[in-house]
Amino acid sequence: MSDNIQPVFILPEDTKRTTGKDAQRNNIMAARAVAQTVRTTLGPKGMDKMIVDSMGDVIVTNDGVTILKEMQIEHPAAKMIVEIAKTQEDTVGDGTTTAVVVAGELLKRAEELLDQNIHPTVLARGYRLAEIEAQKILNDIAEDVDINNNAVLNNIAMTAMTGKGAESNKEHLAELIVKAAKDVVSTKNDQLIVNLDDIKVEKRVGKSTDHSNLVEGIVLDKERVHPEMPEKVENAKIALLDCPLEIKNTEIDAKIQITEPSQLNAFLAQEEQTLRNMVGKIHESGATVVFCQRGIDDLAQHFLAKLGIFAARRVRKSDMEKLTRATGAKIVSNWKELEETDIGFAGLVKEEKVGDEEMVFVEQCQNPKSVTLLVCGGTEHVADEIKRAVTDALGDIAAALKEGKVVAGAGAVEMEIARGLRGYARTLSGREQLAVQAFADAVEIIPRTLAENAGLDPIDVLTKLRSAHDQNQKWAGVNVETGATMNAWVYGVIEPLKVKTQALSSASEVAEMILRIDDVILGSQRTQQGMPPGMGGMPGMM
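The chain above was modelled as a monomer; its predicted structure follows.
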């Protein structure tokens, strides 16, 4: 028998495999690299990122989730961090950078403990205990808010927009945002629900931000179908049709044989009569404005114009649903079924040129349950960033009203959590105590980053904050202008509780998951083996 034992290959030869400490270090390094990328955007003094995609399109933003989505990250562990931002965006709409930065710092602190030979499972368990305790602390310190707290709601919206492109007009925008939320709010199981689908955010390029306004109704990116139609209809009666105002083609292939000219004339006259009947039925219902989800025949357009009816075609389904909620009109799937009871109302329907394109404004609706925020910006990039800031603020208002709880920002919450966790760690006896202390140190990354991004000395700032919190000043946060501590609540830096609870739970769950991975097996690059391309190159992030 030969002494040379053949190695046993259980994986294809070009599979890359990393195990043990190397796998953990690789994953932690990639995750931290992602967190580091967005860290400089945090807070009122955060910087922006410019991202140029493969098509040459430019995005300038400091919105965490937008940056991470556009970066096209390849590394599998780094993708898990991007998922945190997406979850935060979908659940709350704001706090994406906070969630990612905390996750990166949790992994950094974990790495220091791994180097001291503390087992990853012990670390994960300690982090889980710390997160549960942190959630309790958050719920204990949170303050109540309701729909009548206008000052608090305005402060929430302004806090969300501080540090974004919208900052210079944040008071004006905050008022519009709060009014929009109040217009569409509904109650369900004693909870106030703001459905963000009911608030359409449209951008208008070429005007300064202070021209932004709230339309008590809907703005459509459409134009009237015929130049003879009125540009403006007051006290409009609105019909919503989900059927084409055209001659139907037969479902099956049919051949029509015509033997003499009079038959052709009769055939064309019949088609014309059908279109006349359609328009006649609409006119009969009392409608003065028609929004059609499908096409409108040229001849039907002419008949509608002669009757002075304003019409727009190929309106998106989502916009049709918004029009229903704004005007009270019902969507009718067959023009023959259109009745007077299906008609909605708007005080004014007009076509107006916005920038280079025509838009239709459906305004002055009675008690609209769907409204439009028209945000303005001098250039395309500015308008895009303001739209992102407004969307974040809307998410914050919706989260605050739904949960009914808010906390102060400016790093005050994180300092209070860290203080509470250090006290909690002293009650533990095992190695989990170290993990809980590491968690407490990690959440302090938020005030530290706020200070660093404002050009302040983070050690001085943290020392002052710790001292203030030890004297039970629970809302002591960092004033990024002076570096002194301030009462964040009094200064109006307020955020929904949900932003913090969601960020902490997402960050700790993903950190635990990454810590528990001790073996990374990367399949072959060959796509015919059924593996997705672009999963190679483990240490690299992009």
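Residues 67 and 117 are 35 Å apart (CA to CA).
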